[in-house]
Design brief:
Shape: globular
Largest sheet: 2 strands, antiparallel
Number of domains: 2
Number of strands: 4
Low-confidence stretches: none
Radius of gyration: 21 Å
Distance between the termini: 58 Å
Structural class: mainly alpha
Order of helices and strands: HHHHEEHEEHH
Strand order of the largest sheet: 1-2
Mean pLDDT: 77
């Protein structure tokens, strides 16, 4: 029984970590309509900076996180000013912003990956922090994962801002449904994955009208 509890708890904790990653992606895509698929690469930069702070500067990662957050915020402002601002100003429609920003995001993804490779190399990097397992009723969980999970839960409590963006739902035969600020579960296998033929024609790369501007 303890094995199943540990398996379920590990799954929930891993889901909480992915939820933390998705928070930033949801903000930039849902609110700004910018498809910056290099979001993961900037998350990687944050991990490297935290690693440098802990291994080189001997600073507690939790204390160093605000510094990393401010540094990446400043970098994000610069990236937006250099790469995305002109797109948002000149694009005639939201669909064009999404299409053009997707291409820019691909370029940023490869750029950040190669810069990180030049600076830190391709070797695996890591460090041990809050790695001691905590035991609850026979279930052993890592303290560092519990810390991230606690942050994920704290960032998604009730009475928080709930964002619902429906500008992409119009392209699906069965759009996602929302009730009481919560996504409803699918009602059938493959629910909400079939796109309308006219949307596929418009966004087909590279001949679709959206890509031609």
């Amino acid at each position: 029984m303890a094995y199943w509890f540990e398996l379920i708890a590990t799954g929930l904790i891993t889901g909480g970590i992915y939820a933390v990653v998705a928070l930033g992606l949801n903000l930039q895509y849902g609110l700004m309509r910018i498809m910056n698929i290099s979001h993961g690469e900037f998350l990687m930069l944050g991990a490297y900076l935290t690693w440098v702070g802990f291994t080189v500067l001997q600073v507690n990662p939790l204390l160093f996180l605000p510094v990393v957050a401010l540094a990446l915020f400043a970098l994000g402002v610069v990236v937006y000013w250099l790469c995305f601002q002109r797109i948002t100003r000149t694009a005639p429609a939201v669909e064009v912003i999404e299409a053009r920003s997707l291409l820019v995001g691909f370029g940023l993804m490869f750029l950040v990956q190669n810069v990180a490779n030049l600076i830190w190399g391709a070797d695996y990097r890591g460090y041990s922090f809050l790695a001691e397992p905590l035991e609850f009723g026979g279930v052993r969980l890592m303290a560092n994962r519990l810390t991230v999970f606690a942050f994920a839960v704290g960032a998604s409590l009730e009475n928080r801002v709930c964002e619902y963006v429906d500008h992409l739902h119009e392209h699906f035969v069965e759009p996602v449904r929302i009730r009481n600020a919560r996504y409803l579960a699918p009602t059938a296998p493959g629910y909400s994955i079939t796109m309308k033929p006219e949307s596929l024609d418009r966004y087909e790369f590279p001949s679709g009208a959206a890509w031609r501007g």
